[in-house]
What does this fold into?
Amino acid sequence: MNYYPEGINFSDRKFTSRDEILRAIADGEIVEGRVLLCDTQHNLHVDLGVMSGVIPRCEGALGIEDGRVRDIALISKVNKPVCFKIIAIKQDEYGNDYALLSRRIVQLECMRDYISLLSSGDIITARVTHLEKFGAFIDIGAGINSLIPIDMLSVSRINHPNERLKIGQVIQTVLRKREENKLTFSLKELLGTWKENVSKYHVGETVPGIVRSIEDYGVFVELEPNLAGLAEPYKKLEPGQRVSVFIKSILPEKMKVKLVVVDAFEDYADVQELKYYISDGKITNWQYSPEGAIKQVTTKFE
It folds into this structure.
């Protein structure tokens, strides 16, 4: 069974009969629906078509019951898709049928049958759930979150993950490190080596770029997420600003691209579409630097 991130193939399932719901219970079907309400007891309510569904607080997520996950994780699901299994049909105090649902059971199965089997170097599909200054949180399956630290989002340095990703974006990512209770993922190894990125550029060309940082000795301009060059100082620039740059020289042995800012624009860069040089399978070793470079930049997945 495939355990996708919530919302990646979202279909707000609506059942047309009680018997159809009973079949879903018997088959152990994983269903997705949009949360309409988080009540005062932090139970999540979902419309299943022929009847309503309720995910009790304790069934809302792994870790809720023992306090490892806070109730905000449930509150934040309102108007968003969640996955669940239908456990039973119950009756409320007025004698109306409703479906008892569990998201926790799906997450338990996802941990057991999918996430626990992942090893360092495995490439998976994930969905960005929220962004903090230190990194991007991603749904790696059934609403289970993990982290891509900001320094693992790209080789080109950024000030905030929102310069590279946006909430809801579906991405490919690679498992960088597995610890007992923590998985850490990375993105930069999938976005190409220095040689692969620089092959698109030639000395004498003028190309677009994005200002990433401004130093006394020059301006770092991003050409690709995994490729930045250093431009000579230029007046009145800000990080995130779009510029056009002249490529003065390309030095593979130093992994340097020397630039000259030709023009600066008033608008700021949006999140760019990612180009993957590796998008599936498994990585055992990744070498960013070209052969013969003075500095060797590699990642070993162990």
User: Anything to note?
Assistant: Residues 18-27 form the longest helix (10 residues). The two ends are 27 Å apart (CA to CA). Helices lie at 18-27, 72-75, 104-113, 194-198.
